[in-house]
Amino acid sequence: MGLRILYCLALMLVATGATVLIAFSGRMLAPQYGLPPTLWTVILSSSFAGLSLGLWKGARQTGTSDNPVKARRFAAWGLALLAFWALLEPIIEGWVAIPAIALENPLIYVAGWVALWLFLPPFLVIGWVMSLLIGLTLTGLPDQRLPWLGRALGAATAGIPVGLLLAEFLFKAHLGISATLSSLVGLFAVLALFLALGDSLRAVLLVALLGGVSQLPAAWAWPTGCDLEHRDGCLGVGIPSRNAGDFRTVKLNGAAKGAVNPKDLSLLYDNRDRFINAMVGQQIGMDRPPRSLILDGGASPLPRAWAKKHFGRSPAGVFLVSDPTPSVSRMAELHFGFRESPTIQLDHRDGRLLVQSLPAVGGIELVIGAPNLLPHQLTREFNDALVKRLDPDGVYLLPVNDHAADPRLLVHLVKTLQVTFPRVDVWRHEDDHDRRDYVIRAANSVLPPPPVEIVGWTSWPRADLHARTESPNVTILSDDHAPIQALLGYPVPKM
Predict the structure, then answer these.
(1) Are 139 and 114 within 8 A, CB to CB?
(2) 366-399 confidence digits (pLDDT tens)
């Protein structure tokens, strides 16, 4: 009975390690290659496909009633293989991800390809090992198989919440990628040694595993692309492009959160930031700071540039900034020289919660939408809540980066905004890239006349925009259905 309990404990630990691997997958894929960490669907599909195949294979191969030594040997080799896989994961990731990204496929396909190779093989082995452990637990139990089967499955299931809690509150929050993979190496190695005890091959396994564990110090030097690993994600400071000069950007899981020149916070690098600054200056006026709400703006240069322009003349809290990831603003303070200012009020709630908490009596002249395109901040219901907080002459500016040939997401956003806002127009940046910067302008009253020409930006002809939004394939985004990733990720031929 004691041995069976140990097998159940081993099952729980294997399930814990597998859950940590899944829960940490987004962090592993995002930082170096810019893959969105939210694409867990493809990762889960690959992982569970491997787990199912492994359980099926292990069930056919157990033979535990006749030869438990052989089953332990197979399980030990499987766990040793998992230890080495975790040790080599960053190298395998580079082999698989870099060629896929070089082909310039949509990110969802790249993430699916990487997940297929990074997660299906180890989970196939995990399923195989778990099936063997279940078989070992049931060895020699002609009358008690069902109770012990329930215990074994219960132990495996218990590993899932344990793994989720460890991944979220220990590995993500405090340890990071390298320490997580090192811990998985150690876990699988110890379990392999446990199963190898009493086997004639234990010496071979011991030498092999010690050889792998001896490489663990190198794990701390694995490149992660992170200057800081935080529960919010992988944070780093980089250069936006080769000709960026003194500009630097904070990146969260590979996505830029704001480009800033630490030597002069009034300078703007991003096309959309420059356009928004020019439009606000021409249409709202910058003789005084507009009462503004900037969503997901913890590292945005706009409120800092405006605060500098109106230094000493701005009322407290005139720029309300939603900063749902405080680590981003802290990184900006550390590297960009951002300082606390009475003009800027940071609120660490999600942007939608912040909007809903404001009095529905107007008072806001300018809202700048989140450039990271969070689905719940792009729906009709969100727009309905937002418009109640805008002044009658207030303006909502939503920056979007979408395909140049057929910007499907942009058109869906425009149609959704037209339900709430009587006036909606679109400005686009003219460049030769497959993807293009856009800014949607929505207002509750008649929009001001087009501003003085802003270099590189043109207004989208209303007739063409109307024809696109009236297409039967264009729907209104709602809390019930807002397929943002699908609209962004479809393949578009090169222009």
Answers:
(1) no
(2) 899 887 777 888 999 999 999 999 988 888 999 9
